[in-house]
Amino acid sequence: MKKREGKSWAGLLLLTLVLLSPAASRAQQCVGDCDGDNAVTVDEIVTIVNIALGNRPLADCPAGDRTDDGVNTVDEIVIALNFALDGCPPTPTATPDIETVRVDVGTTSGARGTIVNVAVTLSQSMGVIAATSNDIIYDNSQVRPVESAPASCTINPAIGPGSAADKMLISAVAVISGTTERLRVGIIGFNSTTIPDGLVFTCAFEILPTASLGIKVLDNTPDASLPNGDPPPAVAGADGAIAVTP
Fold this sequence. Notes:
Blueprint: H1 9-20, H2 42-53, H3 74-86, E1 101-105, E2 107-111, E3 115-123, E4 131-139, E5 143-145, E6 153-155, E7 168-177, E8 180-188, E9 198-207, E10 214-225, E11 235-236, E12 240-245
Parallel strand pairs: 1-11, 2-12
Antiparallel strand pairs: 1-3, 3-9, 4-8, 4-10, 5-9, 6-9, 7-8, 10-12
């Protein structure tokens, strides 16, 4: 398992998109829900109005003080009224006690001068992973991503735009040194929906006509992110391989 340092690349990007999303600007706290039942009732509105007027202590409904400044203001009463009319935001669900999330790069084989597809899969995520990333290192004198936009990789249509997951794929190739290159692929979205276990994306690789026979390793450094941008407890992933056959 490769060690991660700090917040992951996938997590940082996902968190940026979440923060830029218009939906993120709405307060998630249900202002005015004095008894914590995820609903604002008429009697609770009366309570926070009386707190604002100084007729009752703030301790009678701390949930009415959205800014935690010790007072109930007019704008907080308006927000509470809106929640009373429209309903409170859904109660966040607890994150399952996941152990290790896997983002594995697959193996395949082909002859010199052919194009092969390498699959990347997600497993053991328990439905809580909202973004993934893979840094795939390879020797470009042996194999290389097909030169098509963007970097030969295609998201699984079942999780792509217009699906329940509604994710998008971003990718880029960079030279590390000499013939060593890195293909970086991220799966993210402007929402906090999660990615189901299974196929995430595939990348087309060309086996060069001059490649030597045998196994060509696709060194994999995986990562993943929860909907809030934090990493799961542990992320692992198998290296991929392309076997060059006669």
